[in-house]
Design brief:
alpha/beta, 4 strands
Amino acid sequence: RSSSIGAAGADEAKAKLSRFDNSMLDLVNQCRRVRLHPATTGLVRPEPGKLKLEYGFLTDERAEAITDSLKATASEVREAHFRSNGLSATGARQLLEALPAELECVDLSQNDLSNDVGWCLAFRQLTKLNSLTL
């Protein structure tokens, strides 16, 4: 019985990894369409202090897939714009937790955020936040 549970867990992990791989491939293809060429060292931004991924560029799965890159490369980001991406509370929380405490401006408007307080708790770490658009 335990081997069937372990096999099911492994299959679930493989399926999750496959979803992340597909999400990252979609993200890279969207970047190429707008002539951005992301490198393996992090996210490419035209302005170092501003992260602008709007209008369908992200999904919850892509948000989860880029959190490690964000944590590693977004230390200088002061503005984050995630407007109109269909993000749920889960995707919003993952993005907010990956951004630096010095973040000053966040735009999460036109997403599918709920009234659940879980994603709102991620704002506690953003000690310099002075502009929030929901």
